[in-house]
Amino acid sequence: MGKNCLVAQSGGPTTAINASLAGILETAMKSDRIDKIYGALNGIQGVLNDTLIPLHEIIGSDHKLLQKLKVTPAMFLGSCRYMLADVERDASDYDRICEIFEKYDIAYFFYIGGNDSMDTVSKLSSYVKKKGLEVAVVGCPKTVDNDLKCTDHTPGYGSAAKYIATSVLEIAHDTAIYDMPTVVIVEIMGRNAGWLTAAAAMARNEYNLAPHLIYMPERAFETERFVCDVKKKLKDHKHVIVAVSEGIKSTEGSYVSAQGTKTDKFGHAILSGTGAVLEEIVKHRIGCKVRSIELNVLQRCAAHISSRTDVEEAFLLGKKTAEFGLLGETGIMTVCRRISDSPYEVAYEKACITDVANFEKKIPDSWIAEDGNDVSEEMLRYIRPLIEGEIQLSYVNGIPDYLTFSHLYK
Amino acid sequence: MGKNCLVAQSGGPTTAINASLAGILETAMKSDRIDKIYGALNGIQGVLNDTLIPLHEIIGSDHKLLQKLKVTPAMFLGSCRYMLADVERDASDYDRICEIFEKYDIAYFFYIGGNDSMDTVSKLSSYVKKKGLEVAVVGCPKTVDNDLKCTDHTPGYGSAAKYIATSVLEIAHDTAIYDMPTVVIVEIMGRNAGWLTAAAAMARNEYNLAPHLIYMPERAFETERFVCDVKKKLKDHKHVIVAVSEGIKSTEGSYVSAQGTKTDKFGHAILSGTGAVLEEIVKHRIGCKVRSIELNVLQRCAAHISSRTDVEEAFLLGKKTAEFGLLGETGIMTVCRRISDSPYEVAYEKACITDVANFEKKIPDSWIAEDGNDVSEEMLRYIRPLIEGEIQLSYVNGIPDYLTFSHLYK
Questions:
Q1: Closest partner residue to A166 among B173, B202, B304, by Cβ?
Q2: What pLDDT is recorded for position B261?
Q3: Which residue has the higher pLDDT, B357 or B51?
Q4: Is A78 on the interface with B (CB under 8 A)?
Q5: Which residues of chain B have a CB within 8 Å of the CB of A410?
Q6: What is the mean pLDDT of residues A44-55?
Q7: Dihedral angle over CA of A183, A184, A186, A191, nearest 10
Q8: How many whole angstroms from its chain centre is CA B391?
Q9: What percent of chain A has pLDDT over 70?
Q10: Whether A300 contacts chain B with CB within 8 A
Q11: Which of A178, A406, A410, B341 is deepest in the core (most CB within 10 A)?
């Protein structure tokens, strides 16, 4: 059996995915069953291309570097959006990966990512098993979208939720200054699941009622109802803030976004402009001052306002991922199981990868308000602990001090 | 002579304007020559409408409330965009304001704001003087745009600059993850002056070269040159980040933004979409992956990442504003004069309001790189101290704990 470990990251950025890498690295460095720890650059593509870097050398057990890695946004090792072909159709990628595993004497492969990445873990672990190779293939979850099955929530979600809630509160302060009816539309990420948009509700506190309306893709969006909702809110509030998911669809099933027809290479629709479409509706049908704001990529990379809970959990899930691998577990993903909301407590466990891959977890129907324009108390209870706590970042010359690969390795 | 003081806020939001209010309040509360401190809601309109609130009662010298006020974004007292008519044309507003001054026994009127607000200070102070009223009218500067004359910089600018630099750094991390040529356009506020856009340069550090290109409204924007600049940068860098001001204009003087023809009620052009226009240019002329991001209002209201230098200076300028008023100074604005860059040192002084009002300070020509697509070392030296230091905010339930008027006063 091999003596080395390989880790890679994949999918879209979050501010917690490097914390999972740090967790894997810390546990792997401490194990006397692991010798070298390689990182593949740009996910599974880095394995296929043989672009591996020696993490045991460039970071190793250096506490300061591990701490910096833990709070750095996006992927230290880079990412890819590459899916393995069905093995029956084309096994060449699989054979190439096994060749690399043998070349580097790999006994453990850890893949940190979302839905598409877990598809890779699923396919690869069953191929490796079939070939009789002794390589543990373990997935570690991450996605701001929070749409992975079998886990209470996913690392990255809590920090994005904290950014969204904080930004909506600050936008509410910004909007309230003029003594005139105003509507502000805040467009939030989420193709098919409204978890991120729901997090806007956490902006509410003892004085702030914004967002006054929340529209998630789990419910069909009806323009007439929206106009009616906004008019009603404007009767009681001079300033109305609307949180809307980029992925809302009409009752006919087409994206509200004008750009809803373009697709990325996985066939996922590329969305933008939903907020702008709603802004136009308010302008023409209501006629008051209106502005739309797209939170854009900052909601997934603004590590300066990460949730401490999220980053710590991502780190512990990384450690647990390595521990499962060391126990010889394969074809699994580490998960969080919630034990209680308050005091907040979770257990770190495992799920069979075939139960996870290629499913999208949506918001339960009862967590959305009956009218489809808000969330319920269950949703608030669910999100509340995930955005708790702040990260103490170091700053150099007024900006956060993060870590990159090019810092350390030429 | 009156015994009371009146303060109001005006113009667009910043994260430092409430720090100036807190500074005025603290000094006024300590003075035995001031009895009551009123705040007018929604700027000069609140004076005209007689909507005054007793700040000495609802905040007073409460240290905890003053601290919270100091770090709260946007305007605690609300804002307006109302300019006084020329007195020769219509003196009715002026007479109404003087009536309110007499009704509330006002000896000091402090107005915190930007260019348009300083026009009000200028007109009102000369009217009051002409009428022989003993009311000191003093302006306190604020604007994220940093375009006020006679002061080294304006409160609000440093925090917006810190937000922009931090966001551009985080966007650079987010962009770097995929192994493919990518251009990201970051659209930053600034109608006629490029100060905010220039601040993107502060994102550069020992490993990050983004933004690779910076376009400011002080130089005409040429599409061919832009395409050429981007192509050139793509030769050396896989990921090119471009910072662009919303207000860039073509050599013919028309806004690059597609929405450049709309105007607000002061005749200022309302801009949006410059980033989107550049995105389309890159898509069609270069053809690589491209995205545009509009930082939008968050750059002026994201108090969770305020610059400590900025907030402390805004507070001290508020105190100085009240001190000048107590000395009987009128028709002035408080200013910062820079004594040295490193160690950073400023003096708080005054300027005659007629030298300030209705001018826009642009970036000196020599602070822009020769090719018009970057800033010079002088600009970096100028901005560096302004983004230094962080604010320790309190958080409740995972979001910042700010202060609003409705908290305290029903």
A1: B304
A2: 43
A3: B51
A4: yes
A5: none
A6: 97
A7: 30
A8: 18
A9: 96
A10: yes
A11: A178
Residue numbers of B between 327 and 346 with CB closer than 8 Å to A: none
Locate tokens 């909601």: which residue?
Answer: A299
Q: What angle do CA B303, B156, B355 make, to 5 degrees?
A: 165
Pick from A13, A390, A404: CB nearest B395 = A390
Q: How far is CA B375 from the centre of its chain?
A: 20
In a domain, residue A173? The reply is: yes
Residues A343 and A314 in one domain: yes
B 125-184 → A contacts, CB under 8 A? 162, 165-167, 169-171, 173-174, 176-179
Whether residue A24 contacts residue A59, with contact meaning beta carbons closer than 8 Å, is answered with no
Between A and B, how many residue pairs show a Cβ–Cβ distance under 8 A?
A: 174
Is the CB of A13 inside 8 Å of chain B's CB atoms?
yes
pLDDT at B270: 46
Give the pLDDT mean for A384-405.
Answer: 96
Residues A295 and A203 in one domain: yes
- Buried-state track A28-38, b at ≥16 Cβ within 10 A, e below 16: bbeeeebebbb
Question: Is the distance from CB of A77 to CB of A25 less than 8 angstroms?
Answer: no
| Cβ <8 Å between B73 and A296 | no
Which site among A18, A49, A173 would you substitute to test the B interface, given the most B Cβ atoms closer than 10 Å to its Cβ? A173
Q: How far apart are CA B109 and CA A17, in angstroms?
A: 53
Domain assignment of residue A92, yes or no? yes
Q: State both tokens at B76.
A: 């605690």
Q: Give the pLDDT confidence of B235-244 residue by residue, as tens digits.
A: 999 999 999 9
Strand order across the beta sheet in which A289-294 lies: A213-215, A239-245, A182-188, A289-294
Neighbours of B88 (CB within 10 A): 6
**Residue at which a domain ends, from A252, A268, A299:** A299
**What is the b/e burial string over B125-136, where b = at least 16 CB atoms within 10 angstroms of the residue's CB?**
bbbbeeeebebb
Are the beta carbons of A179 and B78 separated by less than 8 Å? yes
State the burial class of residue B63 (Cβ atoms within 10 Å of its Cβ: 0-12, 13-18, 19+): exposed
Q: What's CA A345's distance to the chain center, in Å? A: 21
Q: Which structural domain, as residue segments, surrounds residue B274?
A: 158-300
B150 Cα distance to chain centroid? 15
Same domain assignment for residues B259 and B162: yes
Given the cut 0.85, state whether the ipTM is greater than it: yes
Integer Cα distance of A6 and A55 in angstroms: 9
Query: In this structure, is residue B364 part of a structural domain?
Result: no
Active site residue B145: yes
Q: Rounded to an integer, what distance in angstroms lies between the CA atom of residue B1 and that of residue B4?
A: 9
Number of separate domains in chain A: 2
